[in-house]
């Protein structure tokens, strides 16, 4: 490899945390070490940049963290970084330490901040997609999505046991913000009767027709998986409407919530985080900036942050058809 353009980098985790962020930090720190680049961890996302909360990281600083959920650097939502004064302070702290480039691990908000910062001060930035929502364009999967999906699947499997024992209908809400990836895939994997996601226009009439079809087919218990961003209504509204339409049903609502953000990362997430952490440092060494490292069809690719923010990964609508056919 030709001589690197950078000699000191900073790494931070920002926005919503996701399992596998630690594995990404580890990969950044160890790749930097391998190529003789000094590496600093910045605590609590952009807040640490502003408040000068840096820590020098070497290969031993990241020992035994590949198995850990969350992020050892902690994450934060920094309102101050959204102001020009905040970003000025952040830049001064980077200059003071002679840091040439930043690796920002997070979601689209984190990338938006990185892009603005880079445009204002010319600092090199590279993004690593870390979010359970899988809503970032430029990578097949984001770090944390696979773990969250499996957590949702395990939880819904357990709910099914009790649903079957009592002939109940369960509405289960899963995370994903405006994206339905977790809902669609966990719904298929657990044999949900119906899956409601924001990418598809749903109606109460269709939902009721599905219940009627299930009844005719002799189904005595059912699970409906609802994405948190579903447009038809909140999970409570949907359960209430169903109770009105089917007064005999014994209906329960479960919101899985933050358990989906935690836990030891899956093998797929650890491998992805290792590839992207490595890829981010290599990208910076090769002169990339304002891009996001991603994996597409098993290849490391760099997508302009601008595109990663603006475009969205499409869900596979065919999976909805498959789910409809297989659920009854
Ligand atoms: P995520 O990265 O998970 O989407 P957020 O949307 O909360 O999470 O963004 C993380 C952080 O990125 C914010 O708290 C803020 O510090 C920074 N950020 C987001 N948008 C901007 C912006 N337009 N300008 C500057 N900083 C931003």
UniProtKB/TrEMBL annotation:
Keyword DNA repair among UniProt keywords: no
Keyword tRNA-binding carried by entry: no
Pfam families per the UniProt record, alphabetical: PFK (PF00365)
Subcellular location: Cytoplasm
Root EC class: transferase
Known catalytic reactions: beta-D-fructose 6-phosphate + ATP = beta-D-fructose 1,6-bisphosphate + ADP + H(+)
GO BP terms in the entry: canonical glycolysis; fructose 1,6-bisphosphate metabolic process; fructose 6-phosphate metabolic process
EC number(s) stated in the UniProt entry for this protein: 2.7.1.11
Binding annotation for ADP: 26-30, 160, 219-221
GO cellular component: 6-phosphofructokinase complex
Binding residue positions for Mg(2+): 108
Active-site residue list: 133
Residue span, Phosphofructokinase domain: 8-281
Residues engaged in binding substrate: 131-133, 168, 175-177, 228, 252, 258-261
PANTHER family reported for this sequence: ATP-DEPENDENT 6-PHOSPHOFRUCTOKINASE, PHOSPHOFRUCTOKINASE
Subunit comment: Homotetramer.
Assigned protein family: Belongs to the phosphofructokinase type A (PFKA) family. ATP-dependent PFK group I subfamily. Prokaryotic clade 'B1' sub-subfamily.
Function, in words: Catalyzes the phosphorylation of D-fructose 6-phosphate to fructose 1,6-bisphosphate by ATP, the first committing step of glycolysis.
Protein name (Swiss-Prot/TrEMBL): ATP-dependent 6-phosphofructokinase
Species this protein is from: Chryseobacterium koreense CCUG 49689
């Amino acid at each position: 490899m030709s001589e690197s353009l950078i000699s000191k980098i900073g790494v931070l985790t920002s926005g919503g945390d996701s399992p596998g962020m630690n594995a990404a930090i580890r990969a950044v720190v160890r790749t930097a070490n391998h190529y003789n680049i000094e590496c600093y961890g910045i605590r609590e996302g952009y807040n640490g940049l502003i408040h000068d909360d840096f820590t020098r990281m070497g290969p031993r600083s990241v020992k035994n963290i590949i198995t850990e959920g969350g992020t050892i650097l902690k994450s934060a939502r920094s309102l101050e970084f959204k102001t020009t004064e905040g970003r000025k302070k952040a830049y001064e702290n980077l200059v003071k330490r002679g840091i040439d480039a930043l690796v920002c691990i997070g979601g689209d908000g984190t990338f938006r901040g990185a892009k603005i910062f880079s445009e204002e001060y010319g600092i090199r930035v590279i993004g690593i997609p870390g979010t359970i929502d899988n809503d970032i364009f430029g990578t097949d999967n984001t770090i944390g999505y696979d773990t969250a999906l499996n957590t949702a699947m395990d939880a819904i499997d357990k709910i099914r046991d009790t649903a079957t024992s009592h002939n109940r209908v369960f509405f289960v809400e899963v995370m994903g913000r405006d994206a339905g990836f977790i809902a669609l895939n966990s719904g298929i994997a657990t044999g949900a009767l119906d899956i409601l996601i924001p990418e598809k226009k749903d109606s109460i009439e269709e939902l009721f027709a599905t219940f009627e079809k299930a009844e005719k087919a002799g189904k005595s218990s059912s699970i409906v998986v609802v994405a948190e961003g579903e447009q038809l209504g909140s999970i409570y509204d949907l359960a209430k409407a169903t109770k009105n339409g089917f007064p005999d049903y014994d209906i329960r609502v479960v919101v899985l919530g933050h358990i989906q953000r935690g836990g030891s990362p899956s093998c797929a997430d650890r491998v992805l985080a290792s590839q992207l952490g490595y890829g981010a440092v290599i990208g910076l060494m090769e002169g990339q900036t304002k891009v996001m490292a991603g994996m597409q069809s098993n290849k490391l690719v760099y997508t302009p942050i601008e595109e990663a923010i603006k475009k969205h990964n499409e869900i596979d609508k065919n999976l909805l058809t498959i789910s409809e056919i297989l659920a009854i």
